[in-house]
Amino acid sequence: MPIQIDGINVHIDNSHANLAQRLGCSWVRIDIDWWLIEKSSGKFSWSQVDSIVNAYRSRGLKIYATLMGSPSWHKPDFNIPPDINIWKRFCITFAKRYVGKVDIMSLWNEPNLGKRFWKGSKKEFFEIIVKGGYEAIKSVNPNIVVAAADFATTSSSNWASWLSMMKKYKNYIDVLAIHTYHDSADEVKRCWNYGKIPYIGWFLPKWQPYKWYINDIKKPVYLTETGYEAKYGNSKQMAKQKEYVEDLMKIKKDIKVQLVFFYCLLDAAPNAEEPWGFYSIDGKPKLVSQ
Asked: What does the pLDDT read at residue 5?
């Protein structure tokens, strides 16, 4: 029987919804790529999102949806800041369509990971994406749960600075969502409570304890991405992946995390360099999902 987990990342795939259900988890995290939905101004194509939402809800799974990405008719690249009114219009349109179907709506993904997902400033991000998106979604229904912003916590992500700014905008989120990847659950716990290099590195923000910043925000915390790479057929890696998942689910209360979403349901592609999935690309279960 699979290890009991809270949730799994499934991206924009519903063809393996039965595998997610088989895991016995309660949640899935899906991608809402704005640029794929509104391909011209005011013209929305919801068929793919509808099929994904319906597939997982019909199997009793709750949905955490991450909205992100400027459309090409509006900006030349998805990671360029949108106009606040255009962004708010999309958030309102999404919220009206999926209120009661999507349980949590999250604003963007890893804006602090270099320039990969966000090329604007921190101030632009919090004013446009967080404040603007929160106000837009809440205008549809104040009971919709809004999260932000699936922050990365790699050493190069400048996470301390972004979480410091999040404190100033904490009234515009209901849930704080972050990502973290380490070699063991013990290392996650150490980085959370004591810092990457305890005591020695406390004066360097990227080595400081996550909780110094998270506790100041005073919101429920979801770990919406974490995991351990395990190539299918490599017994040592698969055993380590299983151990990571088991141990992290045991310590989540110690780090005051309410929900954990693992990355991800299936490996990314045949011969993938980064086999994070609980299943191989062709749906074969790894040890963690058996």
From this structure: 97
